[in-house]
């Protein structure tokens, strides 16, 4: 029997000041996320939403280490740096059966702005209004046993059945809503590699890449992948578009894209988000 591939991943992530950084997992869908904040910045984790100081899944303060998880894994998470300085974190992710008790280590309710505190009440700035107000809770011991029968506690009895009709489908997507895009519309020949640099932002999906030349092939490479006049192939190799061919909705994280023609010169169009 073949050994199961480990889902454990460890990486160093740098988040620019005031920015949300997207971390994608191309070969695994982890459901546990351990963050070691190596900086003096406040870092916020969002699992299925873009985080900010008032809406997030996990808060990790300066030099703190925290972990959280969920039942199902995801293909990407988001890290927000709420400071004027770059934040560097050590991110460890893995997949394993979910244990809800791990959430006890999370110091705030999901999606709230609460932070860790001493739980000490030092004073009130206003009196409590009239009504059935409560502070804390009271534990009651030594209650008499409940007699046999159809007794209920905290239950609402509905005598008639309730029929719920069909509900419309709900569409769920992991794609974040981007407020920016990168576009290229120009000429590429076989004499020089054309590089489009996206930094300081990155592209997570290419809406389209089109070879508008009707005669010559187009070579495409991403990030630091090598691109020469005779490119190779293999894992993360160069893409080759035949004349008139195009790619659409290509899910690929990249900080730059490179173009080179096999021969001649022709138009190329690209849109990345």
List keywords for this structure.
273 residues, Jelly Rolls, four-stranded antiparallel beta sheet, 0% helix, mainly beta, elongated, 16 strands
Q: How is this structure best summarized?
A:
With 273 residues, this protein is an all-beta fold. The chain has no helices and 16 strands. The chain has a 4-stranded antiparallel beta sheet with strand order 1-8-3-6, with no helix packed on it. Strands 2-7-4-5 form a 4-stranded antiparallel beta sheet, with no helix packed on it.
Describe the structure in your own words.
This protein is mainly β. Among the domains are: about 100 residues, Jelly Rolls, CATH 2.60.120; about 90 residues, Jelly Rolls (Sandwich), CATH 2.60.120. It is about 0% helix and about 35% strand. It is built from no helices and 16 strands. The protein has a four-stranded antiparallel β-sheet with strand order 1-8-3-6, with no helix packed on it. It has a four-stranded antiparallel β-sheet with strand order 2-7-4-5, with no helix packed on it. The chain has a four-stranded antiparallel β-sheet with strand order 9-16-11-14, with no helix packed on it. It is elongated. About 5% of the residues have low confidence.
Numbering strands along the chain, what is their spatial order in the largest sheet? 1-8-3-6
The CATH homologous superfamily name of the domain at 9-105 equals Jelly Rolls
Discrete helix count: 0
Q: Which outline best applies? A: elongated
Major β-sheet, in short? 4 strands, antiparallel
**Which structural class fits the helix and strand makeup?**
mainly beta
Beta-strand residue percentage? 35-45%
Q: Between the first and last Cα atoms, what is the distance in angstroms?
A: 42 Å
Which CATH class of the domain at 9-105? Answer: Mainly Beta
In angstroms, what is the radius of gyration?
27 Å
Give helix and strand order, one letter per element, not per position.
EEEEEEEEEEEEEEEE
- Percent in helix: under 10%
CATH architecture of the domain at 9-105: Sandwich
User: How many extended strands?
Assistant: 16
**Remind me, CATH topology of the domain at 9-105?**
Jelly Rolls
User: Which residue ranges are poorly predicted, with pLDDT under 50 across at least 5 consecutive positions?
Assistant: 107-114
* Mean pLDDT score: 84
């Amino acid at each position: 029997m073949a050994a199961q591939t480990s889902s454990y991943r460890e990486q160093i992530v740098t988040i620019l000041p005031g920015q949300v950084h997207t971390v994608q997992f191309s070969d695994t869908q982890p459901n546990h996320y351990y963050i070691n904040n190596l900086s003096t910045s406040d870092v916020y984790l969002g699992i299925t939403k873009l985080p900010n100081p008032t809406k997030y899944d996990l808060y990790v303060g300066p030099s703190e280490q925290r972990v959280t998880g969920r039942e199902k894994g995801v293909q990407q998470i988001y890290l927000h740096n709420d400071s004027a300085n770059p934040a560097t974190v050590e991110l460890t992710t893995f997949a394993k059966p979910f244990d809800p008790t791990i959430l006890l280590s999370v110091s705030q309710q999901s999606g709230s702005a609460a932070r860790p505190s001493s739980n000490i009440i030092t004073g009130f700035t206003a009196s409590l209004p009239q009504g059935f107000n409560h502070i804390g809770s009271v534990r009651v011991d030594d209650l008499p046993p409940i007699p046999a029968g159809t007794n209920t506690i905290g239950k609402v009895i509905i005598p008639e059945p309730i029929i719920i009709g069909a509900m419309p489908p709900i569409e769920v997507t992991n794609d974040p809503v981007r407020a920016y895009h990168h576009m290229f519309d120009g000429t590429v020949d076989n004499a020089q590699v054309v590089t489009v640099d996206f930094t300081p932002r990155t592209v997570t999906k290419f809406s389209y890449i089109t070879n508008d030349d009707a005669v010559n092939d187009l070579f495409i490479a991403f990030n630091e992948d090598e691109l020469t006049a005779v490119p190779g192939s293999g894992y993360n190799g160069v893409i080759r578009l035949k004349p008139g061919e195009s790619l659409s909705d290509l899910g690929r994280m990249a900080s730059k894209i490179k173009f080179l023609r096999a021969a001649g010169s022709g138009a190329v169009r690209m849109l990345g988000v």
